[in-house]
Amino acid sequence: MAAGARPPVPSIRKRLLWRALAVVLLGAALSAMAAALAVSVVVRDVMESSLEETAQALVVLAEHEVEVEAISHGRALPAPAHSEAIQWQLRAPTGRLIARSHSAPDTPWPVAPLVEGHVRAMGLAVYTIPGQDLWLQVAQPLAEFEHAQRTAAMAAGGSVMLLGLLAAAALGWSIRHELRPISEFAHNIERVGPETAALAEPRIPRRELVPAYSALSALLQRLQASLRSERAFAAHAAHSLRTPLAGLTAQLEVASAKAPAEIAHRLSLATDAAQRLAGVVDALLTMARTTEGVRWRAFDATELATIAAGPRIDVDATQLAAAGTLLGDSDLLAVAVANLVDNAARHGAQRARVRGTRSSQQQCIEIEDDGPGASPERLALIGAALERFETKGEIDPAIGLGLTLAASVARAHRGGLSVQSSPAGRRGFVARLEWPTEPLQDK
């Protein structure tokens, strides 16, 4: 992490989601293990009980079959060929083999002494039960015995784990769905602009967010009231200054014409200062006008040629005719063009070209001067300041009043102002004001 960089802020949604899923999955895993163990024990008990019950049934039958030894002679009893899941041996109290099943060996099981109970050895699970005059041993291969346990345990554990995964997925979806209003709340806040008086109504209302929506809406209303007051004051102050400044400029011009040569130069400087101040006042009035809405109308692009002409710079506006008819607030656009031309003159340009273009989607006015231009670093700084103004309405001293006013006019038209160096081979600076062909409706 870079020096001074702040660590990433934890996400409530991600933390809640992962913790809930971890708890559910851990619970599902433990439940699956418990279910598998329980089922394994139950299956073992059931299978051992099956051996016992089989042995109890067979020993009774063998004791009542007096000819069983005569029939078998220590061999398997006559029966069709079949696969035996359970084997058995019938033995005399001395251990001698009396009879056996087809799969049982023809010698007594050496691992199963004549002692009542269960024995596991040599791959067999054997249960021995005594009768009145004989012993019966019933056996099952341990592989089948353990396979049955594993199958039952895996089926039970897998079912529980699958249900746990389904529950985790349902829980994750539920958490995401329930936290969606918070994301919508943040999105509504991001959409707040200088003209926003209240937050948009939530599409997914939640009682917990009602106080936050109400508080922010009240705050926005107070900010709007304060902003309206500031705009009204700025517009009133600028309007009140226009007449005195116009009179002051006129008096200075008259005095300069009649003044002796030794003070005429000073009066000329005072006249220029008064004119610049009058320009600032006009700019403030124009910026206040941009907040009141744009009066869209169709006008000929050549109407801007007269406005673009500056007293201290040679302006070529012949290429405006190529744009034909433009759509927008011609008064505001004229002030923006005049300020961009004046801005070029104040930065040392001798000539400026004003061009206009129009397509089906976009309109553009471009002012290119032959001034000293700007370094790439300066252009990047101005571009970033214009982007912040366009997106957030943030005024940066780096762009000055002329660019700020032009950017305000572009923003009022739902467009933007961009700057760049003149094309290769030419020195100078290019300001490009773009806005859509048709007014966009606020959503």
In short:
With 443 residues, the chain is of the alpha+beta class.
Walk me through what this model shows.
This protein folds into 3 domains: 12-76 and 84-159, no CATH class; 193-292, Helix Hairpins; 294-436, Heat Shock Protein 90. 54% of the residues lie in helices and 16% in strands. It has 9 helices and 12 strands. It has helices at 12-64, 68-72, 142-190, 210-258, 261-290, 303-308, 330-346, 376-392, 400-412; strands spanning 87-91, 97-100, 117-121, 124-130, 135-141, 297-300, 314-316, 325-328, 351-358, 362-369, 416-421, 429-436. The strands form 3 sheets. A 5-stranded antiparallel sheet has the order 2-1-5-4-3. A 5-stranded mixed sheet has the order 7-9-10-12-11. Strands 6-8 form a two-stranded antiparallel sheet.
Number of domains: 3
Tally of separate helices: 9
Question: What's the total count of β strands?
Answer: 12
Residue stretches low in confidence (pLDDT < 50, at least 5 long) are none
User: How many strands, what sense, and barrel or not for the largest sheet?
Assistant: 5 strands, antiparallel
CATH second-level architecture of the largest domain? 2-Layer Sandwich
Instruction: Using the coordinates shown, work out and report the CATH topology of the largest domain.
Output: Heat Shock Protein 90
CATH class of the largest domain: Alpha Beta
Can you tell me the CATH superfamily of the largest domain? Answer: Histidine kinase-like ATPase, C-terminal domain
What is the alpha-carbon Rg in Å?
Answer: 48 Å
